[in-house]
Amino acid sequence: MKDAIRHLDTRFSALGVLRTLQRPPKGWLRAIRDALGMTTAQYARRLGVSQPRIIELEKSEMTGRVTVHTLERAAEALGCRLVYVLIPERPLADVVQARAGFLADKQSASVQHTMRLEDQAVTDKRANKELRQRLIQELLQRPARLWDEA
């Protein structure tokens, strides 16, 4: 899993500039069609649909209701290629580590609460830190456990 995360994080870092790229107000299809000087009727012929369907298509892109398949076909008719990518807000390695830390803190707090009730509280900060690290390592050994609870 670590290799897969590292590999994806490396690929995502190359796409960093895309984080700030926003869809044009009227959508990519309309922006590219307009830039090419293509009318909706001309675009419809290239795509093999009716002219009103182009207007629907451009509206559905603006509202986010267009399917990936339709968007791909529409892009091809404009001489473009659809690139579909999910870009994490932060590196996946950080997401996994933060989740493991969150769950470790939660488990550690539960253990410490029980120990306090039994008058066996551990006040040694180093011991608590070591417990947290051990819990994190255990969670990272079975990463599917990280996502069992919300």
Give the SSE string: HHHHHHH
| CATH class wording of the largest domain | Mainly Alpha
User: What's the rounded overall pLDDT mean?
Assistant: 87
Largest sheet: none
Number of domains: 2
Uncertain segments are: none
Task: Describe the model.
The structure is a single chain. With 150 residues, the chain is mainly alpha-helical. The chain folds into two domains: 17-77, Orthogonal Bundle (434 Repressor (Amino-terminal Domain)), CATH 1.10.260; 92-147, no CATH class. The protein has seven helices and no strands. The chain has helices at residues 2-13, 28-36, 40-47, 51-63, 68-77, 92-117, 125-141. Helix 3 packs across helix 4 and helix 6 (92-117) packs across helix 7 (125-141). The relative contact order is 0.10. The mean pLDDT is 87.
Summarize the structure.
The chain is 63% helix and 0% strand.
Structural descriptors:
single chain; 150 residues; mainly alpha; 63% helix
Which helices and strands appear, and what pairs or packs with what?
Layout: H1 2-13, H2 28-36, H3 40-47, H4 51-63, H5 68-77, H6 92-117, H7 125-141
Helix pairs in contact: 3-4, 6-7
